[in-house]
Structure formats: C-alpha cells, structure tokens
Amino acid sequence: MYRALGRLGGRLPRPPPSRGLTWGAGGSAPHLGGADLASLPAAARRFVEEGVELCRPSGVHLCDGSKEEGDALVALLREQGVLHPVPKYENCWLARTDPQDVARVESRTVLVTERERDSVPPAPPSGEPQLGRWLSPRAFDQAVRQRFPACMSGRPLFVVPFRMGPRGSGLARAAVQLTDSPYVVASMRIMTHVGLDVLPDLQGGDFVRCLHSVGRPLPLTEPLVSNWPCDPERTLIAHVPDERRIVSFGSGYGGNSLLGKKCLALRIASRLARDEGWLAEHMLILGVTPPSGRKVYVAAAFPSACGKTNLAMMQPALPGWSVQCVGDDIAWMKFDDEGRLRAINPERGFFGVAPGTSPSTNPAAMATVRRDTLFTNVGLGSHGEPFWEGLESLLPPGTSLTDWHGRPWALGSPQPCAHPNSRFCAPAANCPSMDPAWEDPRGVPIDAIIFGGRRPEGIPLVYEAFGWQHGVFVGSAMRSEATAAAEHTGRRLLHDPFAMRPFFGYNAGRYLAHWLSLGERRGLCLPRVFHVNWFLRDPSGKFLWPGFGHNARVLAWICSRVAGEDNAKEMPYGLVPKEEALDLRGLPGVSYRHLFPLDRSFWERETRELRTYYQENFGEDLPREVMDQLEALEKRVRKI
Ligand code: OXD
Ligand code: MN
C-alpha cells in the first residue's frame, strides 16, 4: 500500500560518523551506538528502507535490546525533558504527556481491507459504528500520503526488532517497529522481547511490519506541550491485516503507539488466529491452586479497567489458596494435539492503570513497580515517590505533591492528581506472583474461560454457561460501564462482546462464528465458560461484594466445577452455585440472595436491548446460533 508512494530501495541515511545519531535540532545528544544495519535480513532491511524513504529521518538506529541501550535511551529522554526521575524507586521514571494524548483513540483506529465487510458487519442504521471502523485501501493510501512524507525530519528512526510470546513457542510472532519516539522504544523494551536474537526470525519476511511516528518533524512549527511530541488532530492508527501491517501516526501513548500490544497482539493476531485456527483474546491468564491440590488455569476477559490486572495478581482471602499470574491483558490460545486448549501470554510486561492500585487492592503490582518502571501521567511526591488516587495512606507527613501536568497539587483538590488513565509500564519478571510456567513455550492448559464486566444491577456474582454455544452467546452479550482507557466518558453501559469491541481485527460476526466453530471440532476438550460480576451495587450505590482477594471464593467454585462437582443449580440465565457451595464465611453483611438476583423485568430489558444491539450492529452477520441462544433465553425469562 504505502509502498506505492515513492521509489524504494534507496540507501539508508547514515548517522554522521563522529556523533552517532543526531537527536533533533541542535541537540547535543548521547551516542546510542546501535547494531549494524547490515545485520538485518533482506526483507527487514527493505522494510527499513521503505520507512526511511518515506519518513526521511535524520538517522537510523537498530535497537539491540542491551542494557547500555536502555540507559542511553533514558539519558536521551531526560535530556529532552520527557522523563523525570522517581528517585524513591529504583530505576523508575515518569513521563507527562500532552493532555491531548492520554488514551487510546478508538474513533481514529481503523482496519484496512478491500471489502468493508471483511472488517466490519453492515453499518448500523443510525449512530456510530461500534464494532470497528473500516478504511478503504485508497483512503488509507491518501491518509498515509497526507501524513508520513518527511514526518521524521530532524528525528532519528529507531528500528525495533521484537517478538511477542516466549522463544520457541509455535504461537510466538516476530515483528519490527519503526518509530521516531524513544519513549516508545523504552516502553517496547519492557512490554516485548526486543533484541538482535529476533533477527533470524525475520529472515523469510514473515514478520509483522509496524510503522509509527509521533508526527512532529523538526524544526517544530509550534511548541510542544510537556515536551511531548504528538499530532492529535491527525492521529490515525491503521491496520492492514492482509499484509500483517500496522501504521500509526500522531500519538505517542499506550496502545496507539506500543504497536505490539493492542494493534499486533489483538487486532492483527485475531485475524491470524481466525485464519490459522487459534484464538487471540483480550484475556488475563492465571493459575489457581486449592489447598488440596490440582492447579487450574483460567483465562478471563474483562473490558479495559475492570480489574484484570488486580485479578491476575490477586492474593486470595481464602486460607490455603494461591493465585499465580501468567498474564494480565492478552492471551493467545490454541488446542494442542491432545485437544487441550493451551495459552501463552504474548507480552513481557504490564501496562497497568495506576489509579486504584494500592497495597490493599494489589500488593503484587505495588511490588512490581518498585523498580525498572516507566510511569506515565501519574503524580509525584516531594520524597520522590509516584502518587495516584488510592495511595493517600502511603504519603509520609509533610509530602507536597505535583499532579500529572507537573503542577502543585493538594489532597482534596477537585481534579485528580493522576490522570484516570495514567499507567505503569513494568517488567512481568518483577512481579512476585508470576507463575513458574509463565514463559513456558507450550503455554498453560486452560480449563475455564471467564467473562465479566461492571454491571451495577441484575447480573449475578457468577454463573456458568450451559455449554459452548451458550458460552459464546454469554461472551457476545457482555456489557460494562465505560472506563477512562479510551476517549469515552461517564458511567454509560457499553456493549463489549468478548471485551474485544475496540480490538476486533476482522468482522465481529465472523469472529463469533470462529468461536462457535471450535465447538464443532472433534476431539477438543472445551473449557467451561463462566460469567462474573464483582460490581453489583445496592440501591444506595454501595458495592454488594467485597471483591479483590475475596474473588478467590468465586474462583474456588469455578475450580470445583472444573473438578466435576455437582454443586450448581439452574437459573434462566445459567448455572449458579448452590447456596452452600459458595464460601461466604466471614463476610458480614454479604448475602447470597443479593448476589444472585432474579428479576424478570431486568432480564426482559436486558434481552430486549441485546436484540436491538445485535440487529443494529451485527445485522445479518450475527451467527444464527447466537440468535437461537437469545431466543432460548427470552423464552426462559418469560417463565420467571
Ligand atoms: C488496556 C486497555 O490498556 O484494554 O489494556 O485499554
Ligand atoms: Mn486491555
């Protein structure tokens, strides 16, 4: 596609021999060294040449993933005023972004395919498309032409060879990201495996091509805000699944720019998974071990900022139980030769939401971020500690605070100190509760899949699906209150099928069909499917369930179901624990009855809204089996 833009195969510009790369207009810059570009396999070299031809950077740096390179990147980012020290923690840094570049931008995230229908179901009759956005190849070429030529002038281009997934795993993927953002390189080094040992995997040309620019060539025409280069007006995050290609412009933040995460590991990978018969999902993976024995691994899909990281690192409030983390955001899963579903975490780090993370909600995450962590848009205490909403009790007396804009801030101020979507980017290896098998190339065996969302009313604490098809229906019917991870606001309930709404890499109707097709395959040991809701509230708005470590009580019931215990009773929407099968001991004020509401008018409303949602958003691409499941539920609801 954008290859059509110019003559290819030109010579790579070389950095000036005595100074290494140049870092911007007139800046005296640390020398990063970098690996020899000649070591790139031919296909990767061609990709770099195309990028250079198009973006016209001041130099090219091939990242080798070394510690020296990491130190030099930090030095460079400090010199540019992007990173600030967090001296109370070890090797930790704080970035503050332009306030216009703080979250994923779903409205500017597109899939590029010849046929619109390959990307999205038929357009809804009214309103915004909810299941992804399509851009024609022509419009995409034009968008690239309007943005990328010479967009890296005055800035060096970093070539980041990286791998998603453990070395040796059949699911692992090699990729190359070209970027003009050293912040992105520093983050990619935490979130993925960056290094020259990836180069042999690029040899055959079968790698994902990622091109990213912050879109602020030098010299600047307008000053930067917070020293953070970005171009919010022209931001575009485009995926070309047929070419395994990602092109991102204008944002330096999170999933818009760390292209291994949402763009590759979910959007591109979900399409690869469909083509190749596996699953790429927005799911955490954890292992739970009961006092008596057999560890059970589960994968769980929750929409952004519903507590995936907290659940993945949970410390059970049930004596004798333990939970270990394999991943907190993305699972790649494939049935093995024995028909067992096995999952790997394609990532190597956590890009977690900071506010709300505290020693009481997630002690393992707090331990993880004590070193080697890049914080973005959190506050800073005068003793050199990061600060966000939830850490108030940790502040030593007399601490003064700076908010995420870098301005003085006082406890009790109406605006939060940390941005609600502020993040920590930390190596998974730092987490004290990582599972011993988290990097096992064979993956871990998955016995249960859990769906969930923030549902203040009507949806019970936990239920099990009646079978695979019903489970796929339950995933397709997920809804949750909006969060700060994207540009949405307020407490609206959003439909979020499989927690993949922003991350489908192809038509969501066909995605459901792909899940259903697994139920038809012979010889598979299909996991049980559950739905959980930690967020039920009473009429005064108070949560009915204590959550966090107590969620182990729900995991304990799920484990008992996996073990084949006959301890469930049937409700119209699914199977729930018999009263004595859910351990509620020591939870004063928590009542089984409130946790398992059954309200006919709620379910009538829910099924009616779901029917409208399916009709408007999936249209004729909704698989018949899913509509059959809805009709069966409607029938059961009429009998309540
Ligand atoms: C995330 C998200 O950042 O889901 O993980 O938005
Ligand atoms: Mn996520």
Describe the protein's topology.
Layout: H1 42-55, E1 59-62, H2 67-79, E2 83-85, E3 93-95, E4 109-112, H3 116-119, E5 134-135, H4 137-147, E6 156-164, E7 173-179, H5 182-191, E8 193-194, E9 208-213, E10 236-240, E11 245-249, H6 254-257, H7 260-276, E12 279-281, E13 283-289, E14 296-301, H8 308-312, E15 322-327, E16 331-335, E17 341-344, E18 349-353, H9 363-368, E19 374-376, E20 379-381, E21 386-387, E22 401-402, E23 408-409, E24 423-427, E25 444-452, E26 462-464, H10 468-476, E27 479-481, E28 493-495, H11 508-520, E29 528-532, H12 551-562, E30 568-571, E31 574-577, H13 592-595, H14 600-617, H15 624-638
Parallel strand pairs: 1-6, 3-19, 4-5, 4-10, 7-9, 9-11, 14-25, 25-29
Antiparallel strand pairs: 2-3, 6-7, 6-8, 10-11, 12-16, 13-14, 13-15, 16-17, 17-25, 18-24, 19-24, 20-21, 20-22, 22-23, 26-29, 27-28, 30-31
Bound molecules: oxalic acid (OXD) and manganese (II) ion (MN).
Residues 282, 304, 329 line the site of manganese (II) ion.
